[in-house]
Amino acid sequence: MKWKRALVVTTFVSLLTGTLLTSKPSDVEAMIRIGKKAAGKIESALPEARVAAGPLAAFRAGDALPIEERVRVRIQTEKAMAGADVVALAMPTAGEVKLKGIVRDASQKRRAVEIANSTAGVEVVIDELAVPEK
After folding, report:
1. What percentage of the chain has pLDDT greater than the value 70?
2. Could you say which of 27, 55, 95, 115 has the lowest number of CB atoms within 10 Å?
3. Distance CA 87, CA 54 (A)
4. Looking at domain 67-130, which of 3.40.50.150, 3.40.225.10, 3.40.50.2000, 3.30.1340.30 is its CATH number?
């Protein structure tokens, strides 16, 4: 696949170079004007950087995800937690999170509690995770 891309780029550069070498000076100036006009139209058609970057980029400094969402994201992105079905619930007391769901084994249960405890803003973790019997 890389060699195809290299071939396309090489062909394009060769054609562009050949065109510029065999053209009159006025042709080059016209191509520059057309290129600038096209670039301007493309820029005006693109969405704002905040919209294009995705939903998490829309958060400004000072915005924060809810505590249960931070725990959920950390658990879901942890490789050791693959196959676990864990839900994090915010409790009425600030800094308190309840973990519910099913994990594969005791080590995965310990890891989920460790992740929750190490999440910013979490002070207390209520562990209601179930480990299936074998």
Report:
1. 85
2. 55
3. 24
4. 3.30.1340.30
